[in-house]
Amino acid sequence: MSRLFRDVDGGPLCPHGSVVCIGAFDGLHLGHRALVRHAVARARALGVPAVVVTFEPLPREFFARDTPPPRLTLARAKVEGLLDLGADHVGLLRFDAKLSAMSAEDFARVLLSGRLAAREVWIGPEFRFGHRRGGDLALLQAMGRELGFTAGEIEPVHAQGERVSSTRIREALKSGDFATVERLLGRPYAIGGRVVRGKQLGRTLGFPTANLRFPKTPALSGIYATWVHGVGDQPWPSVSSFGTRPTVDGVEPLLEAHLFDFAGDLYGRHIDVEFVAKLRDELKFPDLPSLTEQMHRDAAEARDLLSEHQRRATA
Predict the structure, then answer these.
(1) CA distances from 236 to 175, 242, 258 (A)
(2) Predicted pLDDT at 290
(3) Per the confidence metrics, is the pTM higher than 0.90?
(4) Which residue among 37, 48, 106, 309 is buried most deeply as judged by most CB within 10 Å?
């Protein structure tokens, strides 16, 4: 049975040993997947659990709380993705002042050796951990000789000659280059969540929306042609707004998907919104009639783009 744990300290989780991989895993791109699959394969070969160790919030978010970096994947989706890749346990460690002050040596002793009884530890290229990023592959290998585990680093992963990284994916999302995003992720970019109630302004304007909260800094903003998954047997065509809704003085990021020709109640349902193409940036309109006119134009453009997208996919 898979297990989620949040703390470095605590009782033994894998008394008979484990294979551990460590990383931020934001986006779960092709490089992340290669690392996790390698660790899972090694764990299966040794007959021990595969453990993925990651962090929430991400260390970069903790150290830049006033200007946090854009997030690709929320914690729940990341954990679900890691379990789908074969992880037996996921350590979603609370990255706080205590953990940020822990030395790399103590991290290896307390967590990797103490709680997880690691036999092997795997990291991605150039990964750093511990206080002041003092831990690297060489330190892990030295600690492993003391504590009884081996450590290794997988090679960088490339897609069509380009190195896969979360930073590159964020850049592509910002520019609306979804072809590059899909190539580096190995799948279309999507955001999932449970539909929540909004102010129902869209309904009064003739554009009811399914709303998803995104309590992090998103990596993209604007109006998009999208597919919504989780509504019917097939992806549902839609136009989506992702941003702070400046026309109505919004503050928190909200993903609002208007499903074309849909009649039904989606509140409480888990859906995934797949991004296909960017239509425009988010704008502040002088009044609601001006906003509504633009929404009709956006919807018409999104319908055309999605029809062409579907035609190419089935050709």
Answers:
(1) 24, 17, 10
(2) 87
(3) yes
(4) 48
Determine the 3-state secondary structure of 153 from DSSP.
strand
What single letter denotes the amino acid at residue 204?
T
Residue 94, SS3?
strand
pLDDT: which is higher, 41 or 292: 41
Percent share of the chain, pLDDT over 90: 82
Beta bridge partners of 153: 123
Beta strand segments in the chain, E: 3-5, 18-22, 50-56, 89-94, 118-123, 150-153, 158-159, 162-163, 190-194, 210-213, 222-229, 236-243, 254-259, 270-280
Question: How do residues 205-259 score in pLDDT, each as one tens digit?
Answer: 668 899 999 999 999 999 999 999 999 889 999 999 998 876 665 668 899 999 9
Contact 14, 51 (CB under 8 A): yes
Residues 6+ apart with CB under 8 A from 207: 258, 292, 295, 299
Confirm if 273 and 257 have CB atoms less than 8 A apart.
yes
C-beta neighbour count of 294 within 10 angstroms: 16
Six-digit token pair at 158?
Answer: 């490339």
Structure tokens at 184: 């580096």
Helix, strand, coil in percent for the chain, rounding step 5? 35, 25, 40
277 token code pair:
């193409």
Using omega within 30 degrees of 0 as the cis cutoff, is the peptide bond preceding 246 cis? Answer: no
